[in-house]
Amino acid sequence: MDMLQHTLTEAGRLGLGVDMAQASGWPFGGPWVTPEDACKYVAHQTYTVPGGGQLTEAVRFVQKPLLKTVGQPIDIKQLADPIAKNANLQLHAFDQVRFEKPLPLQALMAYSDKGQALDLTSKVVADGKLSWTAPAGSVWMLYAVFEGWHGKQVERAGPGGEGDVIDHFSKKATQNYLARFDEAFKGRNVQAIRAFFNDSYEVDDAQGEANWTPLIFSEFQKRRGYDLRQHLPALFSKEAENQQHQRVLSDYRETVSELLLENYTQTWHDWAKTQGALIRNQAHGSPANILDLYAATDIPETEGEDLLRLKFASSAAHVTGKPLTSSESATWENAHFLSKLSDVKKAMDLMLLGGVNHTFYHGTNYSPQAAAWPGWLFYAAVHFNPNNTFWNDFGQLNRYVAHCQSFLQAGQPAHDVLVYLPIYDSYARPGKVLLQHYDGIKHGFKDMPVGPIGEELLKQGYGFDFISDKQLKQVKTTGRTLQTGGGTRYQTILLPDARLVPLATLEHYLQLARNGATLVVQNQLPTDVPGLGQLDKRRAAFKKLLAPLKFKPSGSAGVEKAALGKGAVLVGKDVNRLLATAGVQREALTDSGLQFVRRRHDNGHYYFVANWSDKAVDTWVPLQTAAKSVALYNPMTEQLGLANWRTSAKGTPEVRLQLAPGESCILEANSGTLSGPVYAYQQATGPAQPVQGTWNVRFVSGGPELPAPVQTSELKSWTEFKGEATRKFAGTAAYTINFAMPAGDGEGWLLNLGRVAESARVQLNGQDLGTLIGPTYQIFIPKGQLQASNTLTVNVSNGMANRIIDMDRNHVSYKNAYNINMSSKLKENRGADGLFTAEKWTPKESGLIGPVTLTPMAASTGAAGKMQ
């Protein structure tokens, strides 16, 4: 607590915000978590008893021992139970521990071949003997359910933070866990903590899954309206096509989802309020509808490399009116030591396109200043620390992200379509395990229509968010516009070929149409309700709801329309045609290979636009917004001005965009008339001219040693220079050349460095021009900065890889992590010890490779105006 308060004080002095991870590692857990509050799993046994017979064997289940550790191995028989009683927990770095012991019986049910069900739990005595004679005339199948200790341990825990992970489905377990912080905070001022943080669920990142909680039977009865014990064969069945079994499984998964939401996420959120703080939560990977988990979070946080996955967190934020969506960013962009700043920029662009506007890099560990290079390294692949050779240029990336976020934190989200998440279709699908874990589309919705539909919407340029059943019930119709519980406006809700939809959801969906909305259904209407309780009654009501829908041709090929009250429901296979018929306009700039995300402000829209194709874009793109002015801002170069724009035949603006591969920009479409400087588009007035002569190459920082200076008239990777020192060098070299004023007319010249490995800081005549991190390395030089004779200096930093190659080949120790000590994402980069190694690599391209050219440029401008 002294260290925490020191941190808060220093952060206040420096103007830094502080969020506190509420576990030493993840998930929530620690030494104060008792066996009663630790995560659980369910085990079951079956027995057959003929009519008139008795069960001779004991109703008993002994948990097999299990020990998973990434630290020093140990015999489980040497450990005390519970695990927190043991010393040297850091030494062993336990991941999962199960002790051999009998498990407590939860229920024993008997089912006859004639459909009878009997509860025999009370007839099992202490030694496991069953005091019961089976009624004659039937063969009885007995199901015994036992409660096991899952054994998941806190991952990456620091000293004193080791121990069991909590039972996330138990409110009591969550409250007991948080009470430890109440005790620690007594008499302390922690009001400077902005938010408490949870780094993902990941309980089931272990053998088996945590799928049980002591109150599951009573909670199931209360929520689903029937006794789960009457249907144990359905719960544990492997009959994939048995519909009743699917319905029981769906109800079980829905119950667990609700318990995780209410007993963990909402309970934690309510506790944080007592501390005057927010919660920042990574919900992905949870066995629940993560849209609802994210919605119960003040700052939903995502991670990953898939745009649809990222949209789960931002969708919940948008729908519920939360201003921030955060990200754990650039954790595994490449193998260790290979990620360039341009790779991280691309990862950050993806986050921005996915609705993230509050970036967190994945983290960096403490490293003593006296530690030899490369210092103490984190297990993740991108090393954000001062020993990384990209550190001197890292600030340029951070400025870029900050510029982008300043726009994307302003205003409100401006998407047109809400895509219903068909969670019940997923709940009903049998699997190898009881629970389904949701992590975007690939985990939970794989091979379901919602995935391809989402990809098609992205391709066609429709802005959309996912919405859950719980959130959909908060949507209201305002004229023909839909407004969510968080106050965000949309034009329609798309049902993506959903088969199973709850009665209350369908009822509200159709009421929105009656109130004036035009809603769209891909392929066909839902066919049934999910779950088992009161099935006949719910089915009858379901059919009654759909009966008024009388579909007729809409006038658009392949789209049928049913008028309903003041609105309508459209059905068709082609999503693009469906949305067009509903009056939703797509952003056709995606036809030019561009990607975008859009925000609404008081006078128009902000667009973040990225070109991650392999071709430069110089074209006019349409915008689906009313505007009298469009401003353009380059968040990397900070160039800004009024864009060239014109009015299309449809009355909407078209804007000229010039974007190199990997480049991005911000557009502000404004309904008012802006005046001020115009944006200077670049137009070549002559051919590119090579910068020729002798380059003086001086190695200025890095190691293991500074190679000798080199003079060369031919640019190439410095690993090809003479001497072994350059092949294993990681650091920065200064390339200097003198050149005369180039020929040509125009406002200036475009300096293109060609190929650079990997980032560059450019100086001309002693003046800084800028830092280039790629993937395109070019910068505009105004005519006034060139002289009759000029000196160009380019400081190029390569990656860490070449020095690491040399260290691994010579077996120099640098892997110091006790827990997940430099694991490798790729199998081919693993050594005999299973850890990462670069010893088989060849030296990576480094330095200024060129060709370096200067191209005379004229500024192509539009009307003048004033920037707001």
In summary, what is this structure?
Among the domains are: 417-581, no CATH class; 588-679, Immunoglobulin-like; 689-799 and 844-859, Galactose-binding domain-like (Jelly Rolls). The protein is built from 17 helices and 50 strands. A hairpin with a 5-residue loop joins strand 21 and strand 22 (489-490).
Structure overview:
Helix 3 (171-185) packs parallel to helix 6. The longest helix has 32 residues, at 243-274. Helices cover 22% and strands 28% of the residues. The strands form 13 sheets. It has a 7-stranded mixed sheet with strand order 19-18-23-24-27-26-25, with helices on both faces. It has a 6-stranded parallel sheet with strand order 1-12-13-14-15-16. With 868 residues, it is of the alpha+beta class. Strand 14, helix 8 (307-320) and strand 15 form a beta-alpha-beta unit. The chain is globular, with a radius of gyration of 31 Å. Among the domains are: 417-581, no CATH class; 588-679, Sandwich (Immunoglobulin-like), CATH 2.60.40.1180; 689-799 and 844-859, Jelly Rolls, CATH 2.60.120.260. InterPro entries: Galactose-bd-like_sf, Ulvan_degrading_GH. Pfam families: Glyco_hydro_106 (PF17132). This is Glycoside hydrolase family 2 protein.
